[in-house]
Amino acid sequence: xxxxxxxxxxxxxxxxxxxxxxxxxxxxxxxxxxxxxxxxxxxxxxxxxxxxxxxxxxxxxxxxxxxxxxxxxxxxxxxxxxxxxxxxxxxxxxxxxxxxxxxxxxxxxxxxxxxxxxxxxxxxxxxxxxxxxxxxxxxxxxxxxxxxxxxxxxxxxxxxxxxxxxxxxxxxxxxxxxxxxxxxxxxxxxxxxxx
Length: 195
What we know:
By secondary structure, the protein is α/β, with parallel strands linked by helices. It is 34% helix and 16% strand. The protein is built from 8 helices and 7 strands, in the order E-H-H-E-H-E-H-E-H-E-E-E-H-H-H. The chain has a 7-stranded mixed beta sheet with strand order 4-3-2-1-5-6-7. The longest helix has 15 residues. The radius of gyration is 19 Å and the shape is globular. The N and C termini lie far apart (41 Å).
């Protein structure tokens, strides 16, 4: 995972409500246990025709969405079944943050554990973002602020441990492995006392 400190990006917008994990990554693509290549199947049923060609009307297939690392989705983003493949696919595609007024709890947890920052904003900010696809935003994880065009910024909440992991580009296991020397020293000091 890449560390997240500051993301400056135009936004790609999917204004649909209740975007569930099966729409994010259809179940037929869940046979893999690796993240690589899942970005190609992201929103597959919406992005592609039956013959595999891209649907030009789908927002992510339009030229202005190319290179965007921030996705603005409709209310209740990531609802449905629990699957880590959903944030994996978004991350592999190139997204580093997802913004909505409501993000499903299990999806949010999976996203935070896999390098994708979920950001919940108020209705007015959300409506502005939905109405202005391609707006350049600045996501600052160190200060937990979302900067909008015109100098406006707002705070967003991130669970503290997840924030530390994202800032350092590690997952929970990676964080624990970095603590190996301290854990070993603690165990040795307590084992010697117990003897």
